[in-house]
Structure prediction request, 720 residues.
Amino acid sequence: MSDNEVAPLETAFGVEHHVTRADAPDRPASEGGPEMVQLLTPEGERVPDPELDAVVDDLSDEALRGLYRDLVLVRRFDAEATALQRQGELGLWASLLGQEAAQVGSGRALRRQDYAFPTYREHGVAWCRGVDPVNLLGMFRGVNHGGWDPNEKNFHLYTIIIGAQTLHATGYAMGVQRDGDVGTGDDRRDTAVIAYFGDGATSQGDVSEALVFAGVNNSPVVFFCQNNQWAISEPNEKQSRAPLWHRARGFGFPGIRVDGNDVLAVYAVSKRALDAARTGQGPTFIEAFTYRMGAHTTSDDPTKYRVSAEVEVWKHRDPIQRYRRWLTTTEKADPEFFDAVDAEADELGASVRERCLAMPDPDGAEMFAHVYADDHPVMAREREWFSEYHASFEEAR
Amino acid sequence: MAATTLAKGITSGLRAAMDKDPKVVLMGEDIGKLGGVFRVTEGLQKDFGEDRVIDTPLAEAGIMGTAIGMALRGYRPVVEIQFDGFVYPAFDHIVSQVAKLRARSLGAVTVPIVIRIPFGGGIGAVEHHSESNESYFAHTAGLRVAVCSNPHDAHWMIQQAVETDDPVVFYEPKRRYWDKGEIGDGPDGALGTARVMREGTDVSLLAYGPMVKTCLQAAQAAEEEGRSVEVVDLRSLAPLDEATVLASVRRTGRAVVVHEASTFLGIGAEISAMVTEQAFYALEAPVLRVGGYNVPYPPSRLEEDFLPDLDRVLDAVDRSLAY
Prediction:
């Protein structure tokens, strides 16, 4: 029996409707296939969607322009960070180039009380949460391992161990359930959690275990998989035989594929999934079909494993260009607006650069500072020795 | 108070911790209706409900990973790992996340998780049910490692482990689960401290968990031969209570470390190095180790040959005194 013959899961979310839609576009698998939700074509034409149009219609023109501003500023910040790495100011950078819409669309669908668990590439989500972008540079510059207070903006520290954060997100969501912050009907109380991960992470046992725990607990967590087609050098087909979004069914909750380069579609699908979580309808698996335009990190060389023709194809699907076209043709934004955003992006780049260079190296004794909450005599003795050892050089001068 | 078993000492300790703080939750496999395979959590789900005594899916990485998330939300999870040899799927979350989150966040978040592990051999179990893997965790900065050896400590130390904001790997000597003893009115010292269980003047036996009883029996036997043997229950492997160990060794001049774990890079190796560095001139003999051999834990028909026993401890006492 093919998957299409399986009865759609009964959920208020209703996203499985897209699986069997009669008017599904004739789109090849390499472009996301017929099931992929798309509201804006790469040419910037609006595709009507009876389920999701209302979500988009609820956005004011100002909010729509805000999404564009986010996309551009996040890309500019990312470009500045890449430049800083090339100039030796960062040890490494993991660029999000090409994935701006997936991150901004989902990030802007979050409410203040929601909680996001990122990988190490979610600079766009961090931006939407209000995390100071300079904070994101700390770990790549080597001055800390994260260094922001996760509870300040409900944005957890970057997690480098692939997939581990999906379990942290699920556990956090289990805590939300125990706090009674699900399904109360209070928009400022009901809480969803979102776990970001990539296509490569879906091979990790942790991700499958997270789907198990979230499923059996009906936890308010959205699994947001950015399928950027490449896990460093390994293409998607080396990670999964079946489309990633199909996995959700096996764990008992809905899955959906969305065009990850279409900020409106990502926003709408994410908002629906987050609403379902907040109202007690449990988890959703979202596969955002996108592309990693750059290298895995600045240490990687993608010319060794993928052809430039593929990158050229995806350039045509650029998330910012299509959205700008749509804002222009619908007259939701004028040239002055676009010029102002560009100017703001340049200011952001300059300010990030300046503040990155001004980041102080931490004091050596800092490495002992936050290891334990309570007394630890053995570490205290070592710390004392460290200080005396370094002080001895001062005295010798 | 009537004598109670070590297992029930933990049960009553967990009950007290849950009564005191509604954020304390228990997570693990079969810990609800069954009460855990050793019945340590027996009756707790009935009294505290399924939201606080959580029967989890059978996945240790999943249990530990979700416990981290619960802790980030403000809960204090006490995780039961069913047997020592089943902790390895959770190893990544323990060493990469639990141990490091406080440091990584520059103190902004803590994950006050207690990881309970029934450990050690001597019960005739099948493979993976008799291991002593404490060194892996004692080696990892950011974790505390505590080991109880008797019902009184079991009852009080588990509460101390729940109370600290630091994560604690809490080892329970499974072959002593059914040993009985009195539970006193309060803990003997803070978490992280060792305790002199028997005073002596000739040699110090330094042990923890199941070997404390073995060492006390050895000390009794040695006394009949006119030797005065001191027994120290380390109770905490990370941090080590160096002061108590050093004071004992300075009194006796001789030290023998006893544990079930293999000796190579075991706790005995650390203690030997520490004592040698800090009390070299007090030593009348090298620090000796009595431990498991450096082989995988053998089939249970051989475990009596593998595990340190009273005779091997006394043999080491003799060798120490012969210097």
Summary: Chain B has twelve helices and 14 strands. The mean pLDDT of chain B is 98. The radius of gyration of chain B is 19 Å.
